[in-house]
From TrEMBL:
SMART domains: EAL (SM00052)
Cell compartment(s), UniProt: Cell membrane
Primary localization: membrane
PANTHER family membership: CYCLIC DI-GMP PHOSPHODIESTERASE PDEB-RELATED (PTHR33121:SF81), CYCLIC DI-GMP PHOSPHODIESTERASE PDEF (PTHR33121)
Organism the protein comes from: Iodobacter fluviatilis
Lineage, opening ranks: Bacteria, Pseudomonadati, Pseudomonadota, Betaproteobacteria, Neisseriales
Gene3D superfamilies according to UniProt: EAL domain
Any one Gene Ontology cellular component term annotated for this protein: plasma membrane
EC number assigned by the record: 3.1.4.52
Protein name in UniProt: cyclic-guanylate-specific phosphodiesterase
Top EC class, one word: hydrolase
Keyword Hydrolase found: yes
């Protein structure tokens, strides 16, 4: 059952681990792709801005020279002078001579017409027409303060050829109006990656470079492919670790058996005291597992495993044998030991007989071995109840452990063959804490009294808790206030004064070397 659970758990965790690693690689690749493309766009926007700056500065200089020249008569010499500049600079398509906004001539024509009203005036003074046609073939940008004006190829402003070719779009915008743009640019499409550069000489002139989402996808895929081998190695490593941990859990059953053979298990004892006078009356046997390599394994882990995988009977047998041989050494003291039993112990047909044989062999009165049974054991049904009855008839006291945390229906408690209820430590620790469960302990005590059962409270850590429990009428107490679980030798030392003087709480006595 547990193996199957562990197997599916391992598969699930492996899949999850691989999904997480792949998602992380994908996220990393996306971040890298984004960064690369943003840097690319920034470079392109800067290059385009340099180009624009140069185009307008050079045009300004040309026009200045022409305006200063004496040739302003649309003569052949004047037109020749205009054409020299056109040949010198690729982005100048033509130069118009237009005194008082009246075009008199260009380098190749003498058609006379009026200039349309300008579209904008730049902050440095010259006027600007965004799509000036005049008598030209193609609409162009017209720029100048007059009487000479430069007809500029707007495409030149945005025509950048970066080293790495991509589906790039560039827009030059002046005062929120597009002055020039490459083909296919989707103005204001937020799904495109973009970077802008503002002109240093004119803050209203902005060049923005765009890349479509598919370029991001393409770059992402490239980086993702680079990450895949490493991601694969990490996945294999993680799966290896998960398989190793799972195999370790699978083999815990064998390790328990091996641990028993190697003597890695020991029984520790936690004293139980009479709350009325502080005298130690009993001790709970708690199993400890320390591997030969020094690591300690918690009972919550190995007991649960052993209960589900069939090694619990071996552990119980070991605990009972140890407890009985230890008790034989304490024959001069009036002390009993309580042992935890699991459902599988009660289900074993030989359990009652084995225990009787052990008690006889070491001449231990059964009343000195108390048996702690959790509420879960009763779920096993009538056969478990019959076994408990037999144990009780043999002279063992029966305690219900961790009372209040299990499935017991209070209504049928009086049918069960038990002598004591052990209040779970969670309810003891809730006492006086204001927690929602702080009343549970008093209800349990009240109910136990009604049924004529005695009560033990476990997990008592403070004298306030002990005082409250005593006032409630709880007879017995166990917890770190008195002592932690300790090896048998320490228990013997611990018990010496208790035979003559009542027990003093730990707050004034140092703890023995407890575990
Ligand atoms: N916070 C706090 N804890 C306290 C205090 N006093 C005692 N404890 C701890 O509470 C647990 C009491 O044992 P449990 O309820 O029977 O719960 C036990 C019991 O169910 C199981 N277990 C231990 N030994 C055996 C065994 O030999 N056989 C079986 N079947 N189960 C065992 O393992 C569980 C855990 O045992 P441990 O780790 O030894 O933990 C012990 C004990 O060390 C306290 O004042 N404060």
């Amino acid at each position: 059952m547990l193996k199957k659970k562990l197997f599916w758990q391992a598969i699930l965790i492996s899949i999850l681990a691989c999904v997480v690693v792949t998602m992380f690689a994908a996220w990393l690749a996306r971040e890298q792709a984004k960064e690369e493309l943003q840097t690319y766009l920034k470079d392109v926007a800067e290059q385009a801005m340099l180009r624009s700056d140069r185009a307008f500065t050079v045009s300004g200089n040309i026009l200045d020279k022409l305006d200063r020249s004496d040739l302003k008569d649309c003569s052949e010499a004047h037109q020749r002078q205009l054409s020299i500049f056109i040949f010198k600079e690729l982005f100048v398509r033509d130069v118009l001579y237009a005194p008082n906004q009246q075009v008199q001539c260009s380098q190749s024509s003498r058609v006379v017409y009026s200039l349309p009203p300008r579209d904008q005036q730049t902050i440095s003074g010259p006027s600007l027409w965004f799509a000036f046609k005049g008598d030209l073939f193609r609409p162009s940008v017209l720029y100048g303060s007059g009487p000479h004006y430069a007809v500029l190829n707007s495409q030149y402003l945005v025509d950048i050829l970066p080293v790495k070719k991509r589906e790039l779009c560039i827009e030059a915008v002046l005062n929120n109006r597009v002055l020039a743009k490459t083909k296919g640019t989707p103005a204001h499409d937020n799904s495109w990656l973009q970077q802008s550069k503002v002109s240093l000489s004119n803050p209203h002139y902005v060049i923005t470079a765009y890349l479509p989402p598919k370029e991001l996808q393409r770059a992402w895929l490239g980086y993702f492919k680079d990450w895949l081998p490493l991601g694969f190695i990490v996945c294999v490593l993680l799966i290896g670790i998960i398989v190793w941990l799972t195999r370790r859990s699978f083999t815990m059953g064998l390790e328990i058996i091996e641990g028993l053979q190697l003597g890695e298990f020991v029984v520790h004892y936690q004293p139980m005291v009479a709350l009325a006078n502080g005298k130690v009356c009993c001790a709970e046997a708690l199993l400890r597992w320390q591997r030969q390599n020094g690591s300690k394994i918690s009972p919550d882990l190995f007991i649960g495993y052993a209960e589900e995988n069939g090694q619990i009977n071996l552990l119980t047998q070991f605990v009972l044998e140890t407890v009985i041989t230890d008790l034989a050494k304490l024959s001069h003291l009036d002390i009993s030991v309580s042992v935890n039993l699991a459902g599988a112990d009660l289900a074993s047909p030989l359990f009652v007989e084995n225990l009787a044989v052990l008690c006889r062999k070491y001449q231990i009165a059964p009343s000195r071995i108390e048996l702690e049974i959790t509420e879960r054991s009763f779920v096993l049904g009538q056969s478990a109840i019959n076994t408990i009855s037999l144990l009780r008839e043999a002279g063992h006291l029966i305690l219900i452990d961790d009372f209040g945390t299990g499935y017991s229906s209070l209504s049928y408690l009086h049918h069960l063959p038990v002598d004591l209820l052990k209040i779970d430590k969670s309810f003891v620790q809730a006492l006086g804490s204001g927690a929602a469960t702080h009343h549970v302990a008093s209800h349990i005590v009240q109910m136990a009294k009604d049924l004529g059962l005695e009560v033990v409270a476990e997990g008592i850590e403070t004298s306030d808790q002990a005082e409250i429990l005593k006032e409630m009428g709880v007879e017995w107490g166990q917890g770190w206030l008195y002592a932690k679980a300790m090896p048998f030798d320490d228990l013997c030392k611990f018990l010496q004064p208790s035979t003559t003087t009542p027990f003093k709480p730990l707050s004034s006595d140092p703890l023995p070397d407890a575990v």
